[in-house]
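Note to self: the last two entries modelled the partners one at a time, which told us nothing about the interface. This time every component goes in together.
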Amino acid sequence: MTVFKNYFKIAKRYMFTIVLYIVIFLGISAIMSIASNSSESNMYSSLAKPTIGIINNDGKSIFTDTFIEYLNEKTNVKDIDYDISDIKDAIFYRKLDYVVVIPKGYAFSFINLNNPQLETYEIKGSYASVYPKLLIEQFLKFSKLYAESGFGVNDIVNNTIEDLKQEVEIKPIEKETEELNLLAVKFNYLNYSFLAILILIISLITNKFKKENLKRRNLASSKPFSRINFELFLGHLVLTIIVWIIFMLLMIIMHKSQMFNSQGLLYIMNSFVFAITALALSFFIGNIVKDEEAAGSLANVVSLGTSFICGAFVPQILLGDFVLTIAKLFPSYYFILNNELIGKTNSISWVTFSPILFNLIIVFVFGVCYYLLTILFNKINLLKKKGEIYD
Amino acid sequence: MFWHVFVNQFKMIIRRKEMLFWVIFFPVILATFFNLAFSNLTTQEQFKSFNIAVIETENYQQDNNFQGLLNQLSTGKNKIFNYEISTEVVALEKLNNNEITAYLNYQDKIEIVVNDNNSNVSILKGIIDNYYQTSSMFTTIISYRPFLESEELMTKFNSPSTFFQGEESKNTDYTVIYFYTLIGMACLYSASFSMFAINRLEANSGAKGARTSVSSAPKYKMILSSLLATFIIQFISLLVLLAYLIFILKINFGNNLNLILLVCFVGTIVSSMLGIFVSTLFKGNVEKKTGIIIGYTMVCSFLAGMMFIDMKYIVADKFPILANINPVNLITDSLYAIYYYSEPSRVFINVFFLLMFAFVLFLLSINSLRRKRYDSI
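The predicted structure of the combined assembly is written out below.
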């Protein structure tokens, strides 16, 4: 086990870089986890209750007060400062679905049928703006007809509110397990962290073993080449498991209540299998790439690229069929699919577990393929080198 | 001397083909991935009519008004949904297969049965609510004002009225932000070019560095010429990315090319300074310095919204200072301002902050850049 022991000597020399990577990606995972909790309006989820902003320049009056109260009840009203660029930013980043500015003298003008207009901001034609617009239009249309029929202000607002209380019921046929799906999203983020960290660290260390004189010395030893490769892989494996444990601790600290049940266990198991495959992929990349800087770029391409097209950052249901077909070429797709499946599993039985197991096996097979490819690549390279030496 | 160093630094970068290839093309590849992932997103956001089913009940058959409403909403250019008459069993099955958004069961009152709650359901509910609300209103008005003709009221109610004067922003595709962060990231990432170049000049970086240090050439000249060489390569690599985004992926950047180039130019200055800063202020092997640049770039990109677009907004909203010292965010925000706002003042503010950032990095490294004496090396 000389190679295995030496592995850690080298790893120790690059301790700073290794710890730096782990800390950074751990931090990113943690912040992303918290942010996805607190950000109430997730632009990808379809909003049942729109978030709107109201700026009232008309002061207090029965009409405007009732109007605002009505909107308060039907939507999430956010307090906003009256700064056009703030509003426009909030609209652009989908923090607000709709903004209404009530101009000065609006209520008086409205009651007197002068047809005043509200200033609005929205993403034209977007889903999120259709509903708040409908709500506002309803209120104004009703009030207007009452006003036209000669009712006084009090009657106008009271009748309108009374009418608008008429509502039908929505009957869901299935209860969604919201909370646990959120956990699936958080495990999906691991696709990014694991791939980024492992590719960066493993290619860093692999590169040292590839340095010409160290490599020749190794090859000249009595140890078979495959054995050297295997011990290297073992070293990587230990590192991977350490990284995995650190991330699992983070998950447990952040979501204590949800981790210690069968579902939590499935998530953990899924992430472990994926970590091993990510390791095999990193081992492959570390071996084929010669330049360290290039390995850094590749780490970014692979971790970010797969996170986007396989559904870690953008949910799989929102991706097009063509993209998903490409995504199936990467183990990340099956890892993420599994997280979603686990999120939907309420009780574990063979029926619910078998598709999860199937995906686990696919992820693992990807790992085995990467490992075999690496061995093959190194073998071919070795034969080439031998030729050079004999010539 | 200036051109001698310049040419050689240039050659040294060009010769590291693998590194050059990846640093230039990895943002290009990532952009391709982004483009794939987002191709579907904004179209999903646009409202499309949806499908519902209506259970054929006695109440439904008797309610001509309601039938009229359904017909009205399911025809024409601005139709909201398509509906079909069905039985409860069939409708339930279709609902489970997600073929329809909901079905309406008209018993004493209309019931909306759904699979999960989404915007379509909200819209549908709004419509059905409206149906009841309108009839409630007519009842109220007629009871207080029996002399009013219901026909006349109906015409008044249905006459189109404009309650809003809306601001219509043209450029509202938020996915462009991802591509903008990519430019910011590519900018910072290429700091490794200048880091390598400056590192080679330092005596403690190896034999070549020591040799360069004892030459008679003034150090500032060597630094300037090295920087010029890396600056050109960094700027060109950024232009390659920009051209790819604009001409091949057809990402919308607004229409002020001069400002965009200014932002890229200033971004490259920042990355050059970052390279100097990391190579001089951090001691240790090149791997460590590369690690710092990669790590720093990723943190900045993350905070600028590259992995999670809400992040950019949260940081700008809650920690504005952090947003203003994050070069990736400043570059992203400049490009966003060019795209979304027509007037350029916000771009200039961001550019100012970027230049300040570069200047601070330069000040911090200036001392370590000076010629050093070594008793032994």
